[in-house]
TrEMBL record:
Origin superkingdom: Bacteria
Species of provenance: Paenibacillus alginolyticus
Record-given protein name: GapA-binding peptide SR1P
């Protein structure tokens, strides 16, 4: 389950409706100014997430 509840309200006030979420730990990495609500997935800089992604790609 993602942890975007605290970011969603702040993003609406700044018109940053795009959210970048870590695909490994579901933490919000950043928000982006977009025309509507959009979710993008990437990896955060956590060593745990990077190591997990390396193991999955083997």
């Amino acid at each position: 389950m993602s942890n975007t509840n605290h970011v969603t309200l702040a993003a609406i006030h700044r018109y940053d409706l795009g959210v970048i979420i870590c695909k490994s730990c579901n933490e919000v990495i950043a928000t982006l100014p977009t025309d509507g609500y959009k979710k993008f997935y990437s990896l955060c800089n956590s060593s745990i997430c990077i190591d997990k992604n390396k193991e999955a790609s083997k």
